[in-house]
């Protein structure tokens, strides 16, 4: 059973932790927790897939991963996704395996859209690497920008109460019955109100990226959560 501090003032920490936690689950699914000495460089050159990844050197320059780490990431990605891309249905199937006690469908949808930066309906190896690079190795500013983009569902530059409520409900649905204490039905709405009281500085009913980043940087729980998985691979 997974225990979360649902009643803490830093309630928005839950969403950020789940972002990173869900990405870690994906790494585990792809078998990327342990290093292997085998090389996959030849596989990257010869793989007959629909989508070929960019050159390792370019990805190494663009991301915060080493060439060795990128080789390991690619091996797992290719084994699970022979076509070279992940569509939304596959993404949902991945998360359903790790959250069987709940319904991860909606959260996986939001997370997929955050990884699918060019909004073409699929996540390529490059999309996957760049997202993980930010979540696991990025600066605080980069991680918070990524999190804001996830919460800003319609990508208009603001987080509304409706958007945050959709995200909170999705997180609670995914966690299912494995939370302690047991959540009340109106918990998501209460937590959204707490979120906005803390982050909506000018009380205009929306949270801008500046308000979001400023509030998160002042929250010790959030800052601590961002350092949990920096060296998982």
From TrEMBL:
Q: Which residues cross the membrane?
A: 12-33
* One GO-annotated biological process of the protein: regulation of potassium ion transmembrane transport
Which CDD domains does this one have?
Answer: EFh
Question: How does it sit in the bilayer?
Answer: Peripheral membrane protein
The superkingdom listed in its UniProt entry is Eukaryota
Gene Ontology CC terms, in alphabetical order: peroxisome; voltage-gated potassium channel complex
Record's family?
Belongs to the recoverin family.
Q: What name has this protein been given in UniProt?
A: Kv channel-interacting protein 4
Its lineage opens with: Eukaryota, Metazoa, Chordata, Craniata, Vertebrata
Which gene specifies this protein's sequence? Kcnip4
């Amino acid at each position: 059973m997974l225990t979360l501090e649902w009643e803490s003032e830093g309630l928005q920490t839950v969403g950020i932790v789940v972002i990173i936690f869900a990405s870690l689950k994906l790494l585990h699914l792809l078998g990327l927790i342990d290093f292997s000495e085998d090389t996959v460089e030849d596989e990257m050159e010869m793989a007959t897939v629909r989508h070929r990844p960019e050159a390792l050197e370019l990805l190494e320059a663009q991301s915060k991963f080493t060439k060795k780490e990128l080789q390991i990431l690619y091996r797992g990605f290719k084994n699970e996704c022979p076509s070279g891309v992940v569509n939304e249905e596959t993404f949902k199937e991945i998360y359903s395996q790790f959250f069987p006690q709940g319904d991860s469908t909606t959260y996986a949808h939001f997370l997929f859209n955050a990884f699918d930066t060019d909004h073409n309906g699929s996540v390529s190896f490059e999309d996957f690497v760049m997202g993980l690079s930010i979540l696991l190795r990025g600066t605080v500013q980069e991680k918070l920008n990524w999190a804001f983009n996830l919460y800003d569902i319609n990508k208009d530059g603001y987080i509304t109460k409706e958007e945050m409520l959709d995200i909170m409900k999705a997180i609670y649905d995914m966690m299912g019955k494995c939370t302690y204490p047991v959540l009340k039905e109106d918990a998501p709405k209460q937590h959204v109100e707490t979120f906005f009281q803390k982050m909506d500085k000018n009380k205009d009913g929306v949270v801008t990226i500046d308000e979001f980043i400023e509030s998160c940087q002042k929250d010790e729980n959030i800052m601590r959560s961002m350092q949990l998985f920096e060296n998982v691979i």
